[in-house]
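Input record, target 12 of the design panel.
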């Protein structure tokens, strides 16, 4: 992975770098602070803007070489448009766009004067977070590179942001950087090749959060067998790599407070098992642990920013492979809950992993709620594309809070239906339920109905992130294959509604 940008907050002062970044509102309106930073006549910038037909519109940039005698050699003007109308998510995207521009220009050191109407510490932190996330590149396994690749790999940005509220901004950026670190961790895990990241290695990543104060337990196959987790274990029995259950605890809230819980599907590689997937595109199934990646990224974020909340993260970690010991279509397994499941398709495996992980979580921790995340169904991708995750819930308030958090973070969700008519689709005469809906219709909903049977009426949300966690749409803050979707969404939910200060 390329080096991430280094972002430092400072008070107002003269520039210490030769490249300055300033903001311009619509019609190239420059603030007095911006003019003070560059130490030159605003008219020079405005004449250059006129020649370049730069009007200060949002997300546009102007690169100006300054005349001799100016305090800086080069000025990058970032357009804000109508600055007073910008929301936090706009500042997030602007930060990403600026870092993308600086990278394209191969600028490695710059100083920015952060001054805009109605923009304070929260907006500066969002801006910095967007820039930090834009710098992520996964190239750890490239040993030979073209000249342009080498230049990109060697590029590392040092950005100083000057503002008139240094203390507040530094505190806000510290929290935002902690969350960004969780996003980067999730991205790295999804991007890592499956021969490197197996269930055991993934569980070790959870254990590594001990450095941040997260308590971790790792259950092996023998321990899970004693608990009756035969749904989860059945998925992994065709692999030579042993399955694991990782339990992470962040105790940042008051002692005795009921914890929040998050459960992630961690199928480190999904071949489909005996119900083998088609060859084209199977390589992307290294990302079938995107839900677990989001959960570990969230736990990193909560611990790194010392969130005042008690939270549990549970990861069901398996590999789904075909061999002589693999689970077969027609098998019937008994889950930890005691409910029996007829296996009709071994490629509908994620819900089996989550069935035991969800039951374990509600049974042991009695949490305030359970939110599970999983790259669960192609049907959800068909319905919503790469732009929103599917949301299924038995709790209207929790669902609405998540929807609002998604709109504010731009990790968007859309609520999908549950109902008795869908629940009947997973009934079978041979067991308590089957692991498919019996047809290609309503696949995302029948998968969610399956999971609902293991919640034991705990307030619950299922997020199907099949279209958003991997092979996601490129945007201002994410230019790679893995997005880290879910970390910022869930951190926003927790921060806005469940922390005790």
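The sequence produced for target 12 reads:
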């Amino acid at each position: 992975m390329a080096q991430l940008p280094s972002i430092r907050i400072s008070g107002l002062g003269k520039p210490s770098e030769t490249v300055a970044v300033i903001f311009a509102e619509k019609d190239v309106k420059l603030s007095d602070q911006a003019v003070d930073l560059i130490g030159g006549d605003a008219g020079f910038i405005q004449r250059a803007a006129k020649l370049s037909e730069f009007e200060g519109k949002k997300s546009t940039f102007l690169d100006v070489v300054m005349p001799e005698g100016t305090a800086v050699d080069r000025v990058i003007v970032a357009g804000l448009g109508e600055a007073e109308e910008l929301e936090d998510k706009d500042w997030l995207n602007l930060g990403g766009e600026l870092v993308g521009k600086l990278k394209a220009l191969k600028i490695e050191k710059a100083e920015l004067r952060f001054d805009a109407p109605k923009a304070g510490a929260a907006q500066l932190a969002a801006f910095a977070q967007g820039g930090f996330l834009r710098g992520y590149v996964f190239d750890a396994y490239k040993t030979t590179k073209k000249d342009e690749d080498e230049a990109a790999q060697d590029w590392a940005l040092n950005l100083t942001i000057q503002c008139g509220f240094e203390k507040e901004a530094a505190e806000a950026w510290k929290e935002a950087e902690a969350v960004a670190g969780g996003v980067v961790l999730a991205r790295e895990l999804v991007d890592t090749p499956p021969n490197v990241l197996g269930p055991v290695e993934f569980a070790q990543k959870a254990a590594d959060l001990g450095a941040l104060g997260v308590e971790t337990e790792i259950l092996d196959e023998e321990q899970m067998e004693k608990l009756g987790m035969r749904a989860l274990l059945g998925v992994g029995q065709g692999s030579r790599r042993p399955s694991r259950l990782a339990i992470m605890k962040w105790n940042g809230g008051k002692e005795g407070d009921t914890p929040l819980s998050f459960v992630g599907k961690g199928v480190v590689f999904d071949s489909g098992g005996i119900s083998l997937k088609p060859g084209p595109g199977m390589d992307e199934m290294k990302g079938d642990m995107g839900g677990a990646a989001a959960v570990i990224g969230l736990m990193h974020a909560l611990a790194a920013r010392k969130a005042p909340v008690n939270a549990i993260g549970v990861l069901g970690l398996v590999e789904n492979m075909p061999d002589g010991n693999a689970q077969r279509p027609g098998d019937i397994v008994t889950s930890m809950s005691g409910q029996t499941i007829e296996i009709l398709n071994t490629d509908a495996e994620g819900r089996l992993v989550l069935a035991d992980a969800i039951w374990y979580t509600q049974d042991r921790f009695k949490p305030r709620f359970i939110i599970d995340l999983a790259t669960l169904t192609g049907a959800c991708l068909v319905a919503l594309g790469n732009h929103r995750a599917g949301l299924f819930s038995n709790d209207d308030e929790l669902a609405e809070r998540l929807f609002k958090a998604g709109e504010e973070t731009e990790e968007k969700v859309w609520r999908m239906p549950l109902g008795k008519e869908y629940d009947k689709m997973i009934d079978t005469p041979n067991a308590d339920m089957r692991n498919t809906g019996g047809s290609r219709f309503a696949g995302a909903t029948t998968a969610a109905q399956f999971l609902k049977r293991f919640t034991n009426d705990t307030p619950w949300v299922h997020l199907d992130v099949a279209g958003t966690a991997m092979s996601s749409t490129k945007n201002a803050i994410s230019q790679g294959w893995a997005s880290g979707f879910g970390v910022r969404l869930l951190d926003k939910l927790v921060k806005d509604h469940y922390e005790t200060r």
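The chain has 16 helices and 17 strands.
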